[in-house]
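User: Hi! I have a protein structure encoded as tokens and I'd like to know what sequence might fold into it. I'm fairly new to this, so please keep things simple.
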């Protein structure tokens, strides 16, 4: 394995550039962060006071707990410039040694409680605002839009709108109320996403374990990885990935618990007729059809993720600029002490190919 030097201090450009350099191949690709967010105040103004919003926020409060909300409010407020101001974003990217961000709306903008008319207004506004944000830095910022998972019949239209605006795809949560990603109602959406080559960024928001996780920020630290694992399992075991082998799904947070615990899924598929009824191959084989960001907060877990999915299936991710992300994504990647070719693949070469940046 190739040992890499310690990362440069974030924000100090007098330090050595954290981006390794080489003269050929993947080593010269840009550093690409596929997990970064934009906040769109206009979306929240649109839904303010509408029926359903208060109930959704009350559920969110129950799931997270009062202590978490007391921390999260000031945290987001402090980061609003980085979430909304392109110049501030670019300065932060420069300090991190990141050349390109794939920018998705804050998951708080999903609003899957909304009726069909409101949902259309939400996704149109979110897609327009994200496209406009990224257009201020062409080449450095690329965007993802939203679709209303609660209204599967509208998802294709929303996806086509996003792609038509120049966005590279859409961000989706792990489920909508009453619907898992295995729901047959989503088949037209998967079909169109496959046809267009759109990126689908799977980023959970909220966990259905509810009040069991309302202390110590378990709603995020346990809830998000659990939601990732459940959602990916629905895609795998239901046969969605068999029927749509060219889907381009990026799972946030390293795919949660699933990639490093996939052996249990393989055993169930082999040992039980009910577990193996929906998909054609061992569950672990589908990891190589998916993509995962590198945001796992542990170099050993990152190495295990790469071992399970392959170095060509992991992409740099930071969750910019939230506190559950990393301020130094390249340094976090370097800490895993990967072989040089794997390091550069994850740093940017994989994303450069997937997002068709060249």
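Assistant: Happy to help. Inverse folding works backwards from shape to sequence: for each of the 358 positions I chose a residue that suits the local structure. Here it is:
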């Amino acid at each position: 394995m190739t040992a890499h030097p310690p990362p440069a201090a974030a924000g100090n450009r007098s330090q050595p550039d954290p981006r390794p350099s080489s003269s050929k191949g993947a080593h010269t690709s840009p550093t690409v962060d596929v997990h970064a967010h934009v906040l769109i105040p206009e979306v929240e103004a649109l839904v303010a006071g509408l029926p359903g919003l208060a109930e959704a926020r009350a559920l969110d409060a129950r799931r997270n707990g009062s202590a978490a909300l007391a921390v999260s409010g000031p945290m987001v407020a402090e980061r609003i410039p980085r979430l909304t101001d392109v110049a501030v974003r670019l300065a932060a990217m420069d300090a991190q040694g990141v050349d390109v961000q794939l920018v998705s709306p804050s998951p708080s903008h999903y609003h899957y409680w909304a009726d069909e008319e409101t949902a259309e207004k939400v996704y149109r506004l979110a897609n327009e605002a994200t496209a406009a944000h990224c257009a201020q830095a062409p080449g450095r910022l690329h965007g993802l839009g939203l679709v209303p998972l609660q209204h599967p019949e509208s998802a294709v239209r929303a996806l086509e709108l996003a792609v038509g605006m120049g966005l590279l795809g859409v961000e989706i949560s792990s489920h909508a109320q009453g619907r898992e990603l295995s729901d047959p109602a989503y088949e037209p959406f998967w079909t169109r996403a496959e046809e267009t080559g759109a990126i689908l960024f799977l980023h959970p928001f909220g966990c259905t374990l509810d009040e069991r996780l309302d202390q110590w920020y378990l709603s995020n630290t346990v809830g998000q990885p659990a939601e990732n694992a459940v959602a990916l399992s629905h895609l795998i075991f239901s046969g969605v990935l068999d029927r749509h082998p060219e889907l381009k799904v990026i799972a946030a947070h390293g795919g949660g618990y699933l990639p490093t615990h996939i052996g249990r899924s393989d055993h169930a598929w082999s040992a039980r007729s009910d577990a193996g009824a929906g998909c054609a191959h061992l569950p672990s084989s589908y990891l190589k059809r998916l993509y995962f960001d590198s945001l796992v907060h542990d170099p050993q877990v990152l190495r295990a993720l790469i071992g399970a999915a392959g170095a060509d299936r992991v992409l740099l991710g930071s969750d910019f600029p939230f506190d559950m992300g990393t301020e130094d994504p390249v340094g976090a990647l370097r800490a895993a002490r990967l072989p040089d070719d794997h390091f550069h693949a994850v740093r940017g070469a994989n994303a450069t190919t997937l997002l068709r940046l060249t």
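A useful reference point when you look it over: The chain has one domain: 29-354. Feel free to ask if any position seems puzzling.
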